[in-house]
Amino acid sequence: MAEVEISLVKGNLPPVLFPRTATAMTCWLAMGWLAWLSPQPVSAVAASPKVVIVLSQESSPYADMVQGFRASLAGAGVQAEIEIHNLKGNSENAPNMLRPFKNEPPTMFLTVGSLATQAVLADHDEVPVIASLTAHLEKYKKKGNLTGVSLEFSLESQFEVMRRILPEVATVGVLYSPKENQETIDLATTLAKKLGVKLVSKPVETPRDIPDALESLANNVDLLWGITDQVVVSPQTAEPILLFSFRNKIPFAGLSAPWVKAGSLYALERDYGDIGTQCGEIATKIFNKATPRSIHVTSPRKVLFSINLKTARSMKIELSRKITESATQVFQ
Question: Does the residue 10 lie in any domain?
């Protein structure tokens, strides 16, 4: 029986020979068989993951963090669809903003700032959430869909920089709200003891308690250590804290460059781009089937600091040249 070659070859598949008497149905079945064996386009196999980034507000550090996140995904060869939303500092914007993702959830959320993290976690308990720049992030870890990079540096990093800048510090004072920071203080007390440093901690319930708590530390500590605490450290409490520091010549370790500019001796600083990179690395793990529950909340891995030389001179504190040269910002 004579045969005819049908040119439906794709890839390395051989031509198919059919009898001339073959029915149209036979040809169509063969064509379906060839299509089944042929490679499918990538887009038909798996869609690109979608990441929804929720910002607490508009700021340059947040922009640097998002840029680092994008670069990290690109470096890992991840082609993700990225959508950015901004709460503009108002939690009331969250319901309308997040409503579309109820029925069509993204592959994951990336939240930047405490406001964004709280809003997304209140709305989603299954979609993976990578949180960043969020205070006390480890307290949210009971949510099985959460992981990320916290706002705070590790206690080890904070004490290491403290001793680099002021190697002779023996007694450190700290004010804190027990409701917010009791666990942190307990851990810090244990760590300080291992390092040969005495930690004198004073609990305060309200900002009104701060002046008396500060006075109880006068002449008793070498350094006043500031930690993330909504009761103790705020724009409203900056004046009494810094006045106490100058009057008693007890340097204050602030929380950011603005505190150093205002008179703190030093503060740790974050590399926001690298925090974005850290979040991108976590996202890549999740894209590769890791679960948020299996990924520990981590701290910023790059530890920078700024110093105020005017404060150092007024308190007669000698800072080594190495410290001055390694600071990211130096206030004169």
Answer: no
Q: What is the dihedral of CA 40, 109, 294, 160, to 10 degrees?
A: 130
pTM for this model (two decimals): 0.84
| Alpha carbon distances (Å) from 18 to 11, 31, 35 | 20, 12, 17
Q: Are residues 199 and 172 located together in one domain of the fold?
A: yes
pLDDT for 46 equals: 53
Domain that holds residue 281: 50-151+272-294
Q: Does residue 326 share a domain with residue 211?
A: yes
Task: Tell me the CATH number at 245.
Answer: 3.40.50.2300
Whether 24 has a pLDDT exceeding 90, the answer reads no
Helix extents (H) in the chain: 24-37, 42-45, 60-75, 94-98, 100-103, 114-123, 155-165, 178-194, 210-215, 238-248, 257-262, 272-287, 309-314, 321-326
pLDDT of residue 143: 86
Number of independent structural domains in the chain: 2
